[in-house]
Write a structure and sequence with these properties.
heterodimer; A: 688 residues; mainly alpha; two-stranded antiparallel sheet; 31 helices; 2% strand; globular; B: 102 residues; Helix Hairpins; transmembrane helix (chain A); NADH dehydrogenase (ubiquinone) activity (chain A)
């Protein structure tokens, strides 16, 4: 039955073509039936493939060829792989997509008919692209699917085209991932040039013979591309704003499947990264950074969808961390479990926010436990799995596997493990903050009637997976070729205690909301990435104070000016009073002793040391130094230089925008010049 | 076909392409720009046929068929855009669509 594999994405593609291109008016029921049916069929088609795989049909490296294009120099093969990795990821994607589309048949039913048709067409196209990514055994199919899901992500985030916020969020996601995709394309092309084949297994077989100076940039570029799609640290900004799309879109694309595409790619190319240890270390660092920062930011969110977005970032950070440490099987197990419980969280949050009037603020969910108990309890089970409550939830088993892989990863293992365990504790805190708020009493308990099998079935299945799936984690890891790590009892116990601590923390935070607000306020004002502010506070201001205290004696012109400005309550630096020594000596100025009289009108530092000959020499040297060197860097000069530098960007922009005339023929001119330059470059580099 | 014939053909092809590109850059009427694009495409097509004849390889003619298909598709899209621009902007001046101006 393995030959069925290439047909798995076909129903979704046909669904897209029928819904988007067929010039026939379809009724609402037909659109929903077509859209949902086209998404359920891949899961049904996939079942026999999975069965034949479990019976021993799939080994690492097995592939089903689809077609090959002979271009003389090489053969471009398009194939789908039939290895454990694609079985695990493909099964997860097909199952979650089928369930989410069943749910959205009910969730989106009240949209206008053209929008509904557009929604289902795009979701089906996305599913086809995503299945192409997970099954691809060659870079051509992989990249086609990769670009398709990026495009679908853009169009689904900007689904509500009337909302400027949604459109700009979609644009942001598209541009960020396009930048990352350019890195990926460059990396794949360089890999192709080195390996001479488009098949992934052929490329990986060529890796050991490759020059390390070629390998490192290839691995780095591919890693950047994958991290961009997975919303990891330098590219993370697009994911939270992507929540402007409908909730089922967030559940399928921006939590379970699309953002995990980077993880899948990194896992598939794991031998390449194993051969480039410095790139793997960078990937692991970015992963743990995103995991910890995402958890911290999720803690202070006030919107449940934003909170879940940051938690997705953080959980994918865990997977990327495991990948960077060379444990792809563990990352894939966490991917499968995460896809189940995160889509469960999104779907049940959608039900709860529907009951609270469509608002996704956490406060609006208050009382959801009494309004919609089954949605609340499935959310609570999802949150428990996200937090990784020990023994009873699936999330614990997969996260524990990640933590174990971190612990036994060499000399950096223990500090990394501490950071990861802290992130796991914060995960418990932010996940249960929502649960505690939603579980509390509220005055408004009237729920609009909504539910039915289309909502209950997906929630039920996903809840089942989120609890029982834990039993399969060990099997999953073994199936995808990893060996479970055995670590001492103490870190296991500590890892189990982290989520419980997190739940306690969440309880405290919900009881004392003001504390959280204070932390949130502080975190919002950390401007760690504003270079000019850091520069100003840590460099300019200190330098100014020192320079002026040294240079401006009391009674000189500059000091008088500064004093005058102070009197008009303008902050002017450089008064002797700014000097801590000067303040200490200020009280004694009333009883002048002989030193004070001798050095009348000098700065306190001068007064302090001018009593003896050595001190006098020091002062003379300091004065000469100040006069010849420090004065050149007087504060105004620095400020003027800095402001001029900043202002020059404005002028540069004024000049640069003239280049963009918007005329077709000028665009053509630039394209022609660029092509000519590329041709010249190619000629110059290939000339012998 | 001798080597000097091939060089002559290549010069002719480059000339055709240059004329076409100049037409796209210098003209403002969309219709004329489309015609100039066709002229530009005929340059490489001639190059393919000439190189195929020189090497006695039918792939050159195959590529010519590909160029023809490409040109047909390009004209179809171009004419559709032309009609659309005529309808919305009311003119066939390509400088009028400059919404991307910085």
């Amino acid at each position: 039955m393995a030959s069925l594999l290439p047909f798995v994405p076909v129903p979704a593609l046909i669904g897209f073509l029928v819904l988007s291109l067929m010039p026939v008016a379809l009724s609402r029921t037909v659109v929903i039936a077509l859209g949902v049916g086209a998404a359920v069929l891949p899961a049904i088609l996939f079942a026999p493939v999975a069965v034949s795989c479990l019976e021993g049909g799939c080994v690492a490296g097995a592939a089903v060829p689809i077609l090959s294009i002979d271009v003389g120099v090489f053969v471009a093969q398009i194939a789908m792989s039939l290895d454990p990795l694609s079985m695990v990821t493909g099964g997860t994607v097909a199952l979650v997509a089928a369930l989410v589309l069943i749910y959205s048949g009910a969730y989106m039913a009240s949209e206008p008919l053209p929008d509904l048709r557009r929604y289902f067409a795009l979701m089906n196209l996305f599913l086809a692209g995503m299945l192409a990514v997970v099954f691809a055994a060659d870079v051509i199919l992989l990249f086609l699917g990769w670009e398709t899901i990026g495009l679908c992500s853009f169009m689904l985030i900007a689904f509500y085209t009337k909302l400027p916020k949604a459109v700009s969020a979609g644009r942001k996601a598209l541009i960020t991932t396009r930048v990352a995709d350019a890195f990926l394309l460059a990396g794949l092309m360089m890999l192709f040039l080195s390996a001479g084949t488009t098949r992934l297994d052929g490329m990986l077989a060529a890796v050991p013979a490759m020059d390390p100076w070629r390998l490192a940039p290839i691995a780095g570029l591919i890693a950047l591309g994958a991290l961009g799609k997975s919303a990891q640290f330098p590219f993370h900004t697009w994911l939270p704003s992507a929540m402007a799309g409908p909730t089922p879109v967030s559940a399928l694309l921006h939590s379970a499947t699309m953002v995990a595409a980077g993880v899948i790619l990194l896992a598939r190319l794991a031998p390449l990264f194993a051969a480039a240890p410095e790139i793997s270390a960078m990937v692991a660092m970015l992963g743990i950074l995103t995991a910890a920062a995402g958890a911290l930011i999720a803690l202070i969110q006030t919107d449940v969808k934003k909170l879940l977005a940051f938690s997705t970032m953080s959980q994918i950070g865990f997977m990327v961390l495991a990948l960077g440490l060379g444990a792809p099987a563990v990352a894939l197990a966490h991917f499968a479990i995460h896809a189940a419980f995160k889509s469960l969280l999104f779907l049940s949050a959608g039900v709860m926010s529907h009951a609270s009037g469509g608002s996704t603020a956490i406060e609006a969910l208050r009382g959801a436990r009494y309004r919609q108990p089954w949605a609340f309890w499935s959310f609570a089970i999802g949150a428990a799995s996200l937090a990784g409550l020990p023994v009873i939830t699936a999330g614990w088993y997969s996260k524990e596997a990640v933590l174990a892989a971190v612990w036994s990863s060499g000399p950096c293992g223990v500090p990394l493990w501490l950071l990861a365990a802290t992130a796991a504790m914060l995960t418990g805190a932010y996940a249960f903050r929502v649960v505690f708020v939603a579980g509390s009493q509220s005055a408004d308990l009237a729920a609009p009637p909504w539910g039915g099998a289309a909502v209950m079935v997906p929630l039920g299945v996903l809840t089942f997976v989120a609890v029982v799936g834990g039993l399969s984690v060990g099997a999953l890891i073994g199936f995808t070729g990893g060996a479970p790590e055995h670590i001492p009892l103490l870190p296991t116990l500590l890892g189990a205690a982290a989520p419980i601590l997190g739940v306690v923390l969440a309880r405290q935070l919900v009881r004392h909301p003001r504390e959280l607000e204070r932390v949130a306020h502080r975190l919002r004002h950390v401007r760690a990435f504003r270079i000019e502010i850091l520069y100003y506070y840590y460099f300019v201001r200190r330098f100014r104070t020192i320079a002026t205290v040294l240079g401006n004696a009391d009674g000189t012109e500059a000091a008088a000016q500064a004093a005058a400005l102070r009197r008009e309550s303008i902050d002017a630096p450089g008064l002797a009073a700014d000097d801590p020594l000067g303040r200490a000596f200020g009280g004694e100025a009333a009883q002048p002793d002989f030193i004070a009289r001798a050095t009348d009108g000098q700065t306190p530092v001068v007064r302090l040391v001018s009593g003896d000959p050595v001190g006098r020499i020091l002062i003379v040297v300091a004065r000469v130094f100040v006069g010849s060197f420090v004065a050149r860097f007087s504060p105004d000069q620095i400020d003027r230089g800095w402001m001029g530098f900043a202002g020059s960007f404005g002028h540069a922009w004024e000049q640069a925008r003239r280049l963009q005339t918007g005329r077709v023929r000028d665009h053509s001119l630039w394209i022609a010049l660029g092509c000519a330059a590329l041709l010249l470059y190619a000629w110059g580099t290939s000339w012998r | 076909m001798t080597g000097s014939d091939l060089i002559g053909m290549m010069i002719l092809a480059a000339g055709l392409f240059a004329i076409g590109v100049f037409g796209v850059l210098a003209r403002r009427g969309i219709m004329f720009q489309l015609i100039a694009l066709e002229v530009a495409l005929s340059g490489p097509a001639l190059g393919f046929v000439a190189a195929g004849a020189y090497h006695a390889d039918p792939q050159g003619q195959g590529m010519f068929i590909l160029v023809l298909t490409l040109a047909a598709a390009e004209v179809a899209v171009g004419l559709a855009l032309f009609l659309r621009i005529r309808r919305t902007a009311g003119s066939d001046d390509s400088d009028i669509i400059s919404g991307m101006k910085g």
